[in-house]
Amino acid sequence: xxxxxxxxxxxxxxxxxxxxxxxxxxxxxxxxxxxxxxxxxxxxxxxxxxxxxxxxxxxxxxxxxxxxxxxxxxxxxxxxxxxxxxxxxxxxxxxxxxxxxxxxxxxxxxxxxxxxxxxxxxxxxxxxxxxxxxxxxxxxxxxxxxxxxxxxxxxxxxxxxxxxxxxxxxxxxxxxxxxxxxxxxxxxxxxxxxxxxxxxxxxxxxxxxxxxxxxxxxxxxxxxxxxxxxxxxxxxxxxxxxxxxxxxxxxxxxxxxxxxxxxxxxxxxxxxxxxxxxxxxxxxxxxxxxxxxxxxxxxxxxxx
Length: 304
What we know:
The chain is an alpha/beta fold and 304 residues long. The chain has a single domain (5-221), classed as PAC-like subunit (Rossmann fold), CATH 3.40.50. The protein has ten helices and ten strands. It has helices spanning 32-44, 54-57, 107-121, 151-154, 170-180, 202-216, 223-241, 244-263, 267-272, 277-290; strands at 5-7, 18-24, 47-52, 66-70, 73-78, 83-88, 94-101, 125-134, 144-147, 184-193. Strands 1-3-6-7-2-8-10-9 form an eight-stranded mixed β-sheet, sandwiched between helices. A hairpin with a 5-residue loop joins β6 and β7 (94-101). α1 packs across α6 (202-216) and α3 packs across α5 (170-180). The chain is globular, with a radius of gyration of 21 Å. The N and C termini lie far apart (41 Å). The relative contact order is 0.15.
């Protein structure tokens, strides 16, 4: 028995499983990656295969368990567990998901434990899901970017490949650990319009799942997310149309987006040079919040 995790039964025999990672606590604009993972877990009917030791990896003062109190009776405690789950997509492809809070400590030890399990299970590919706010318009498709310690892994992917120094999350550590162990690994990130990043954005979740299918073959029905995205798109259009400044901001974002697409420009650089974008975005976000029946609550009517 490994002291860093507890297995729930025997190690199953799987045919070339894909490991999908989404640990919350780091950047996840609109909760898009978490929503994509929830849809993946539900569609693949995943079940717990292993639970990592919380006393080792989680600071319970920062992530306190929930006490369920019923008429004075402390019925149970619900802990924030990190779990490895197993299931299969609609075509029978084996899928492993790593979910839960990002470890608060011993990252190298955690990465080593995950790598050990992945090798035992025959994982041949790992994809970590993420999302980040960006100065892009809601009227255009959500764009994906990719990262990997291996240039060969991302060489043929038609996604953005940024050059930037940023704080790393646990997913980046896993990319390196699994790559060094011979498992092709990458991060798949989706851009969320920065003026709606405080609310759910199903279009980004659908884009992540579509990208996951492109790079792994794992197939998930995204029709529900797509339908929600269409409704949200229409409602945002109505709100934008009621304010000339916000409408002008979106038009400017569209122009830069389209220019970058048509001329193969560096979209990250082009967007960063847009004048006063952040100020307008902050005003627009406040405008959206003021439309809500609950003062100060982010979101759109009818959407959660």
